[in-house]
Amino acid sequence: MSVVRRSTVRSLSSLACLAVVGAFIGLPSSVAADETFILKQTITITGAALNSFDISWVDPGVHSYLLADRSNKAVDVIDTITKNQTKLAAGAFVGFTGNNDTSGPNGVLTIHHHGTTEVWAGDGNSTVKVIDFKTGNILHVISTNGLERADELCYDPADHLVQIANDAEADVPGHAPFVSFIPTEGPNAYTVVRQIPFPQATNGIEQCQWNPRNGLIYLNLPEVNGNGKDTTDGNVVVIDPRRMQVLTAFPVDVTKCAGPQGMAIGPAPQILLGCNAVSQPPGSGQNAAVMDERDGRLIAVLPNAGGADEVWFNPGDGHYFLADGSNTTQEQLAVIDSRTDQEDPFVVIAKPPGTGHAHSVAADLRTNDVYFPIPNNAGSTLCPTANGCVAIFHSNGRDDPPVFAGR
Asked: How many independent structural domains does the chain possess?
């Protein structure tokens, strides 16, 4: 499964660079028993009430938090220093149509490209919008030629390649979910050069991540050859982005991690899986799991820490964050420590109260602030108005220094 990678990577996004460094230099080793996460601030999103949104992203290089805001047909941007907010490409997206499968924006990320910061976002009409972060102008509209939304995406900075999923094609008779590969460099830049269908993915495709340790892309299939309800094993598919081919697929045991959706690359060899569904047999609870990137073995299963859509790893403090909005019992943000040198590794160390039903989360590795958007119908007790908000949390009760100092 190993692939020989180029020894020198000339152009990495700043976020990928920092994540690589954080994964390799190690993290602080002590964990305080009294660690909690406190609410630092809430920010009410301007415009229409925040009812429908999808993925979050933090880019410390441009000190910005980004949110795919369907309610306002825009990508919301919050400056992580000043906390001022703006909107990118407002009105250019489909927005919320009443059906998530045709709504957008969806997945979102940033790429630093020849002096320009680009914001890439999947839309509900099967296109990818590429936006100039500085001006807000749309630079490219890329069709994936699907019938439903272009959804979650990830970026391989070594090969200058974006992978994006059309996950909802599973609901279209005669169609299958697929991923598209879009180069950001070369003669075929900003065009789809290859697609891989996944007819076995009977409940769509979820989060993907590029792994800087081996140069491979990992992709979650919540269910394989099932009934569309996450009652059979899922897969983590391993893809070689240079050849744009599947190398292998690791089965994910439905009795331990049902419906793997969220994914985060942690310290070697960890990959966190946010398991969305209730494990089989019924009544077994909603779990999260930590997978070994080398062979797919589950290193740890975290009982009742599931229900997640997006999950995030912050190399600044060594924490995983899970937006467990579909959890049937807690419906809140969960925080897990990644460090295995503690007496009880992978314990859930915090569940900030009052976060309600939400499914998106991202953290700033420079400040260790955690951004958690809450819709106006979440039942949250944290938002100061009925419009919904972005809640910002920060660790309290521990003095471990961050790996990266804020600027």
From this structure: 1
Query: Exposure of 240 by Cβ count < 10 A (0-12 exposed, 13-18 middle, 19+ buried)?
Result: middle
Range of the domain at 334: 14-396
Q: Which two tokens stand for residue 333?
A: 């943000």
257, two tokens: 């991690």
Q: Is 245 a member of any domain?
A: yes
- Does residue 2 lie in a domain region? no
Distances (CA, A) of 96 to 54, 103, 108, 183: 10, 5, 16, 28
Show contacts of 332-338: CB within 8 Å, 24+ apart: 332/356, 333/37, 333/358, 333/361, 333/370, 333/372, 333/393, 334/288, 334/305, 334/308, 335/37, 335/370, 336/272, 336/288, 336/302, 336/305, 337/31, 338/27, 338/266, 338/267, 338/270, 338/272, 338/313
**CA distances (Å), 87 to each of 47, 67, 134, 292, in order?**
10, 10, 11, 38
pLDDT digits (tens, 9 = 90+) for 106-161: 999 999 989 999 999 999 999 999 999 999 999 999 999 999 999 999 999 999 99
Burial of 280: CB neighbours in 10 Å, binned 0-12, 13-18, 19+: middle
Beta carbons within 8 Å of 20's beta carbon, 6+ residues apart: 12, 212
Residue 405 placed within a domain: no
CB count within 10 Å of CB 28 equals: 14
Tens digit of each residue's pLDDT (9 = 90 or more) over 299-311: 999 988 888 899 9
pLDDT on residue 343: 64
DSSP string over 177-241: -EEEEEESSSTTTTS--EEEE-TTBTT----EEEETTTTEEEEEES-BSS-SSS-S-EEEEEEET
Q: Provide the Cα torsion 9, 66, 351, 254; round to 10°.
A: -60
> Residue 344 has what pLDDT?
64
User: What global pTM score does this model have?
Assistant: 0.89
CATH value at residue 223: 2.130.10.10
- DSSP letters, 323-350, are EETT-SS--EEEEEE--TTSSSTT-EEE
- pLDDT bucket at 385, cuts 50 / 70 / 90: confident
Residue 9 within a domain: no
Average pLDDT, integer, range 209-227: 98
